[in-house]
């Protein structure tokens, strides 16, 4: 009976431990020219394993850019470009990340976002492919699963 209870706990708790948080950029206003992204970002904690979710319409898009291009609103040297109205961008590395809208003059009017991603990994270098290295959540989950399984075996053999 104790084994069944522990098994159910691990089964239902594992999704909570495996996935990061989705940050909806701009909250209910989404990615638009009316957003105050500095204020929005200052109220968030971004961690490796989380996702930035950009919701937008019209002629907007999302460019991942360097710090210099962010500061100068240069949209011509994008590291990555996203379109389509909704994009979920995984935060797979710690460090600073910069985003701008590529539509003419939108960055100049404040449609840009700078964040600092916390966590134990190398500095942020966006890429189109995901890293195959385990993130902190999956490593922690693996350790916790091993520990819980070990305790379950003790209960089974002692109980």
Provide a quick synopsis of the model.
With 159 residues, the chain is of the alpha/beta class. The chain has four helices and eight strands. 32% of the residues lie in helices and 22% in strands.
Brief descriptors of the model:
alpha/beta, Immunoglobulin-like, 32% helix, 159 residues, 3-stranded mixed β-sheet, 5-stranded mixed β-sheet, disordered C terminus, globular
Structure description:
The protein has about 160 residues and is an alpha/beta fold. About 30% of the residues lie in helices and about 20% in strands. It has one domain: Sandwich (Immunoglobulin-like). The strands form two sheets. A five-stranded mixed β-sheet has the order 2-8-7-4-5. The protein has a three-stranded mixed β-sheet with strand order 1-3-6, with no helix packed on it. One of its GO terms (molecular function) is electron transfer activity. It comes from Solanum tuberosum (Potato).
